[in-house]
Amino acid sequence: MLNRRNFLTAAVGVAAAGGLAACAKEDEGSSSSSAGGSGGKKITLGFAQVGSESGWRTANTKSVKAAAKDAGYTLKFSDAQQKQENQISAIRSYIAQKVNVIAFSPVVVTGWDAVLKEAKTAKIPVILTDRSIETSDDSLYVSFIGSDFTDEGRRAGKMLETVLEKAGHKGAVKIAQLEGTTGAAPALERAKGFKEIMEADHKDDWKIVVSQTGDFTRAGGKQVMAAFLQSNPDINVLYAHNDDMALGAIQSIEAAGKKPGKDILIISVDGVKDGFVAMSEGKINGIVECNPLLGPQLMELVKKVNDGETVERRIKTKEGDFLQEQAKDALPTRKY
């Protein structure tokens, strides 16, 4: 059994918006319970969310909204529907509205320098949440809060070793990989970490025979897994970059007359409730947890940034790894 561990989660700031591109969704929320800022002035936070593609994302959004309300901040919230152009429009809208702090979870890693330079010029601090970016100037954001996705990939690889041992598997391991959104930090880094374990310890017996994005969605996982099974019917392991894709894949595995968790061993990442239900039913063999409840930490960070305090570049959160035998015990405690 794998033990719970603490993993580095980076502190990130998020950009919030007012007027968005026509295809983006927006809403506002506020609370009058607390001033939230220095001198009694209420803080206005602009938050540009990736979208609502998964159970993890839904839980993350609820956490941010609830924490902002509890802190007494005015929250301007936008749903980018997984489109970078929508997030950029939202951030520019937040800049125009002169919010106090912008936070966002980037759709993809690159392409942010121009809009973040605009925020810096306007003297609005930016926090990255959940996902990191690649930039030519690290001063364009003040902090990052999120998971170490590369380490999650490594943990998934080590978890597969345990799952294979428990299953008594002998012989070649033919792996199908369901990748997250192309160009997104968790997709790139979860693949990288898993590959590190393969290349270090399993060059001769593990092979990724097929790999494709399922865009972090249940529908995407179902569709892509169906294609995988047609082109590679001898797959015996699935590594999914999130629970929702794994859950969609399970439907296709069952439709093909195979037993998920037995004929095809399944490792996924996140730890949402539906994932634990599937694991308690024996359909997922192991899950690497990625905690979505970043709201309270984000609001603490927002206040420090707004008050001009020096903040950490990275913040720690608690995460763990779970196998089938832990699922039933852990299920009642799932908050997301």
Structure description:
Mean pLDDT is 89; it is low at 1-25 and 28-35. The longest helix has 19 residues, at 149-167. It contains ten helices and 14 strands. It is α/β, with parallel strands linked by helices. The chain is elongated, with a radius of gyration of 20 Å. The strands form two sheets. An eight-stranded mixed sheet has the order 2-4-3-5-6-7-1-13, sandwiched between helices. A six-stranded mixed sheet has the order 9-8-10-11-12-14, sandwiched between helices. Helix 4 packs across helix 5 (185-201) and helix 8 crosses helix 10. Helix 5 (185-201) links the parallel strand 8 and strand 9 (206-213). Keywords: Signal, Sugar transport, Transport. This is ABC-type sugar transport system substrate-binding protein. Belongs to the bacterial solute-binding protein 2 family.
Give the distance, in angstroms, between the N- and C-terminal Cα atoms: 23 Å
* Number of distinct helices: 10
Largest sheet: 8 strands, mixed
Query: What share of residues are in beta strands?
Result: 15-25%
Helix and strand composition category: alpha/beta
Strand order of the largest sheet: 2-4-3-5-6-7-1-13
Indicate the mean pLDDT.
89
The gyration radius over C-alpha positions equals: 20 Å
Q: Tell how many strands the DSSP assignment holds.
A: 14
**Residue ranges: pLDDT <50 for 5 or more in a row?**
1-25, 28-35
Share in helix: 25-40%
| Element pattern in H and E | EEEHEHEHEEHEHEHEHEHEHEEH
Shape by Cα distribution: elongated
Family: Belongs to the bacterial solute-binding protein 2 family.
Main location: other
InterPro entries: Peripla_BP_I, SBP_2_dom, TAT_signal
Subcellular location: Cell envelope
